[in-house]
From TrEMBL:
The protein, known as: Pectinesterase catalytic domain-containing protein
Pectinesterase catalytic domain: residues covered: 43-100, 106-198
Gene3D superfamilies in UniProt: Single-stranded right-handed beta-helix, Pectin lyase-like
Known pathway: Glycan metabolism; pectin degradation; 2-dehydro-3-deoxy-D-gluconate from pectin: step 1/5
Keywords: Aspartyl esterase, Hydrolase
InterPro entries, sorted: Pectin_lyas_fold, Pectin_lyase_fold/virulence, Pectinesterase_cat
Length: 214
């Protein structure tokens, strides 16, 4: 009888140990495929010929189709007068630009209206910091696009010290999740250093960046 009890005690101990191991395994954080550490350039576009391609379109065409991993294309400083189309099969493609500015090939129609974004789902986050917003930006800033109350309540859309004709926040949306950021301490949470831990991995890409607020 004593042997049976000892055997049962050992068995229960082993089962408990196995449950602990399984619990630790299940609670172990999964690798995030969108971690900044995996966004590294695989190709370089440079007008001076020092890269793999002279045009962005050629680099996009050479990128793999239906990639399972993030595929970075580094775009060196320069003027690229081209229309860039990214086909649907070019999945997980990331452009990494040096001092980038995207401009239309002709002055924008003064009747055109643009929005800073629209709700993509619950807890979506978009922040504009130190940006130049031209007159084409709608006074309301953000497009509802039929989002429900839960989305509008949980999202975080913010603007901090932007400039330009479209930067006024007087007529912005009144969603619960939208805010005009007043404190630098709040804006600092969304800087390169804080939000994506850029100081740990961006230096390896040779991309120029400002880690914190200017």
């Amino acid at each position: 009888m004593v042997r049976i009890l000892n055997f049962l005690a050992i068995l229960l101990f082993l089962v408990a140990g196995l449950m602990v191991v399984l619990r630790l395994t299940l609670l172990r954080p999964h690798h995030n495929e969108y971690s900044p550490t995996v966004i590294v350039p695989r190709m370089t576009v440079a007008q001076d010929g020092s890269g793999d391609f002279l045009s962005i379109a050629d680099a996009v065409a050479a990128a793999p189709n239906y990639s399972h991993d993030l595929f970075g294309i580094l775009i060196r400083s320069g003027v690229y007068p081209e229309a860039v189309r990214v086909p649907v099969e070019k999945t997980k493609l990331v452009f990494i630009g040096e001092d980038s500015t995207v401009e239309a090939d002709k002055p924008a129609d003064r009747q055109a209206v643009a929005y800073l974004g629209r709700p993509g789902g619950e807890y979506s986050t978009v922040v504009f910091i130190y940006c130049f917003l031209d007159r084409v930006v709608s006074p309301q800033g953000w497009l509802p696009a039929g989002a429900n109350e839960s989305v509008l309540r949980t999202l975080y859309y913010g603007e901090f010290q932007n400039r330009g004709p479209g930067a006024s926040t007087v007529k912005r949306v009144t969603w619960p999740g939208f805010r005009v950021i007043r404190q630098a301490s709040e804006a600092r949470k969304f800087t390169v250093a804080s939000f994506i831990d850029g100081k740990q991995w961006l230096p390896q890409t040779t991309v120029k960046f400002d880690a914190g607020l200017i």
